[in-house]
Write a structure and sequence with these properties.
Blueprint (H helix, E strand, L loop, with lengths): L1 H11 L5 H9 L8 H15 L1 H14 L5 H27 L5 E5 L1 H9 L4 E5 L5 H9 L6 E5 L5 H17 L3 E5 L6 H10 L3 E5 L9 E7 L2 E6 L1 H9 L3 E10 L2 E6 L14 H17 L11 E3 L4
Parallel strand pairs: 1-9, 2-5, 2-8, 3-4, 3-5
Antiparallel strand pairs: 6-7, 7-10, 8-9
Helix pairs in contact: 3-5, 4-5, 9-10
Length: 308
């Protein structure tokens, strides 16, 4: 009996499927003018429940902004949760056909350059804006397949919901494919093969989860950022050109895609590759700092110490 209760608690928790299912069924019935009330209420509830995530976001923000006290850091964390809830509602509106999304693009020249490259390209992105919504929509702009990578959900019921959503999107957008980073999947080999055949691989370079190998990089004096090694290793091992692309939320169901020029990584060489790690990490950190209120990383990534 205790085990059954624990399982229901997990399904009702932050990573469980029951809150997602209830929102999926209730949101289409909610008039648009009441949606902000629902989003604020949902945010406040999960902000209270998600203690570890709340503390991690607060810690990251206070490391990023050393002048912030605990109160300001906690308020900033609530704003991050609020933006996350808003993007979640936008995605569900889009998924259920009860609301559209407007897009703006900065960096059209860089996007056209990326699209015209014959070799495979790596897209470096971060957990911001609405990555899950933007990737399949903009895959149709490229004349080759766009592969995205994501971590599996922590709860199996939630994972089944996500897989159904993704398969529907793949049917709607034939040039879009999603791959899960799981133990024993040899995903790196698969991604390298996609790059060798001229495809585009989009990877989020800012989240260390499960058994992913991390690297510590100093992004500004005294501030270290903990990032996964895999995305950078893939770009270096294949020699593929890398373009940073970030999605931010401009307002009510409005998003902006910022396409940056190719990230000029120095040629590979023996020994220390710290210069490349710093270039890679700063590309992520600079956009995250400018848009800290919608940087949706709920694990501790930033630590501040004495400058090295």
């Amino acid at each position: 009996m205790a085990k059954a209760k624990s399982r229901w608690a997990e399904r009702l928790g932050v990573f469980g499927d029951l809150p997602t299912r209830s929102l999926r069924h209730s949101l289409p019935l909610v008039p648009s003018f009441l949606e902000p009330v629902l989003v604020v209420g949902w945010t406040t509830l999960f902000f209270v429940i998600a203690r570890d995530q709340r503390r991690a976001v607060t810690s990251n923000l206070r490391a990023m902004h050393p002048g912030w006290g605990l109160a300001r850091g906690t308020l900033g964390a609530w704003r991050v949760f609020l933006n996350f809830a808003a993007t979640f509602a936008d995605a569900m509106r889009f998924e259920t056909g009860t609301g559209g999304v407007d897009w703006a693009i900065d960096g059209l020249d860089a996007m056209e350059e990326l699209n015209s490259r014959r070799e495979g390209c790596v897209v470096l992105t971060a957990h911001m804006g609405n990555y899950d919504l933007a990737a399949p929509v903009f895959a149709s702009r490229f004349q080759r397949t766009l592969h995205t990578v994501r971590a599996p959900e922590r709860e199996p019921e939630t994972q089944r919901i996500r897989e159904l959503e993704i398969r529907r999107r793949e049917q709607q957008y034939p040039g879009f494919r999603t791959h899960y980073n799981t133990d024993g999947s040899l995903l790196g080999v698969e991604l390298a093969r996609f790059l060798s055949q001229g495809d585009i691989v989009a990877i989020q370079g800012d989240r260390v989860m499960f058994d992913v190998s991390p690297m510590l990089v100093e992004v500004e004096p005294g501030l270290q950022m903990r990032l996964p090694k895999g995305p950078l290793f893939l770009a270096r091992a294949t020699g593929s050109p890398c373009y940073p692309i970030f999605i931010t939320r401009d307002g009510w169901r409005r998003y902006r895609v910022t396409v940056m020029p190719e990230l000029g990584l120095p040629p590979r060489r023996r020994g220390d590759d710290a210069e490349v790690s710093r270039l890679w990490a700063r590309a992520v950190y600079q956009i995250a700092r400018r848009n800290w209120h919608q940087w949706f990383v709920f694990e501790p990534l930033l630590t501040r110490s004495e400058p090295s």
